Amino acid sequence: MTFRCPPRSIIASFLHSLPSILPVAVVVVLAGLGELGKPSWAAVAVGLALLSLLYSPVEWFTTRYTLKDSGIECRKGLLFRSVRSLAWDAITSIEVKQDWSHRLLRLHEVSLTQASFEPALVLRGLDAPLVDELRRRVGGTSSEVVQPARVISTIYRADLGDLLVMSLVRGQVFLLGAAGLFSLWQFVDDLLPGGGALDIVGAVALWVQVMVAVAAGTVVGIGITVVKYHGFHVRLEDGLLTTSYGLIERRDRRFDPDAVLGVVVQRNIVERLLGRARLAVLTRDREAELEVNTVLPTLPRSTVEAVAREHFGDLAPPMLLTPERGLGKAALNLIALGTLVGLGTWALFATEAPWWVWPIVLLSLWLLPWWALAAYHTRFELDSPLITVRRNFIGERVTTIRSRSIRAVGTGIIGGGRRCAWTWITTYAGGPQRYWALGVGREDADGLRGLVLGADGTC
Is 197 helix (H, G, I), strand (E, B) or coil? Predict the structure, then answer.
């Protein structure tokens, strides 16, 4: 079966690039005609726009896909031809996305991923029947066989209240809201003549400015979160774990059970106060993109633990999250870090340090103690064939990985102590990841080394 993407994928590609091309073309034309009065600038802008319009039809005409019993083949190029072949059984996941232009024309972008954190092949502009055919092929079946109706079992579906809570407890409001508000502020300031918005706002009381900024940032942050994670749905389709979400850009991702190498349960200090947590998986095809591999965004702790044990029982340790009595210690750690930064700020003011010293000192006072305290509160737990990395610092993060994913172990000893001064392990779950811990017992370090060497070592 050999095919090209539907012709309307050309229109989708043009619409997708239009928001980035149009402003540049308008600015170039206005600059050329308004300031310099040289039509040549306008001609250059028109020429570049025409070239960009020709790219999509040429790419569509010169790209063909062939579906075979053993795999998929992509041939593309006009002067320089390239051929890429993938075996069906080497594909670990299939991800389907729809941006606004694809949704408008009922098309999809499909990413076929192998044991790497980059897609091995991306097919842009497929219609629904072709997407279903690819899913069947990746699943090991053929379209010639009559397929039974899909069995769908919902694990979790987010409603508006869940999205609002997620936006607040995960800091989406402050990160996304601040960025969106700053962009809007810059736009309004440049739009208004004669000093812009700064002169208008300057006449308002400071406390009013702060309250308006916080309210606006909260609304923008919540809005972005709701749009991004709209319709978050986790389900089992014919035994495969599937997640989908997005209002403007729709994502649909399926996980091969054999590709799941670990699970991550984590919660920040706000989630600890509210008794909530989130769940993600580590797979062979994604390095540490927990945002992409999110299974449960932020839910009550009991729900997260129940889902983890039901659907990832072979990867869930006997105790997932620690009891809440460790919350006071987390608060003390946060206060200690804040005190260090505060003392550093006072010293910088007192010594009248130059501006370039400030970021260096403040980042050092925050990041270095953060790393040392986080490593001090990290422990390795061996329960073959699993290893659990438990970090209970300000937030809590429990990572459980299959022991076969461990690639290297390192330790350091000062004198003849019974504990290693530092210990680290490197794992590979779609990409390398290193975990550090301080004060690990020598017997535990020997056990870690035995997972790599196949026999006990000596620390």
Answer: helix
Distance CA 156, CA 89 (A): 29
Inter-residue contact 27 to 20 (CB < 8 Å):
no
- Six-digit token pair at 182? 């700053």
- Cα separation, 13 vs 107, in Å, equals 11
What is the third-level CATH fold of 341-453? PH-domain like (2.30.29)
Instruction: Give burial (CB, 10 Å; 0-12/13-18/19+) of 199.
Output: exposed
> In whole angstroms, what is the distance from residue 261 CA to residue 93 CA?
13
Segments in the chain below pLDDT 50:
35-37, 142-147, 176-177, 187, 191-192, 195-197, 287-288, 290, 456, 459
Strand order in the sheet with 432-441: 406-412, 419-428, 432-441
* DSSP-derived 3-state class of residue 384: coil
- The DSSP 8-state label assigned to residue 356 in this structure reads T
Q: How far apart are CA 279 and CA 293, in angstroms?
A: 9
In sequence order, the β-bridge partners of residue 391 are 378, 397
Tokens of 210: 């702060």
- CA–CA dist 133, 121 (Å, integer): 16
Enumerate the β-bridge partners of residue 28: none
Q: Residues 74-131: pLDDT tens digits?
A: 988 877 888 888 888 878 778 888 888 888 888 999 888 776 556 678 888 898 889 8
Give the Cα separation of 199 and 347 in Å (integer): 34
**Which residues is 400 bridged to in the sheet?**
263, 388
Strand pairing category for 64-67 and 93-98: unpaired
User: Is 267 exposed, middle or buried, given 0-12, 13-18 or 19+ CB atoms closer than 10 A?
Assistant: buried
Tokens of 271: 């989630």
Q: Which CATH architecture has domain 2-143?
A: Roll (2.30)
Pair type for strands 121-126 and 419-428: unpaired
The domains spanning 2-143 and 341-453 adopt the same CATH topology: yes
Express each pLDDT in 73-84 by its tens digit.
Answer: 998 887 788 888
Q: Which residue has the tokens 């918005």?
A: 197
Nearest-CA neighbor of 158 among 170, 143, 175, 147?
170
Give the closest residue to 93 by CA, choosing from 111, 109, 70: 111
Beta bridge partners of 235: 154, 242
**Which CA distances in Å does 188 have to 174, 181, 245?**
20, 11, 32
pLDDT (0 to 100) of residue 16: 82
Residue-range domain boundaries for the chain: 2-143, 160-228, 341-453
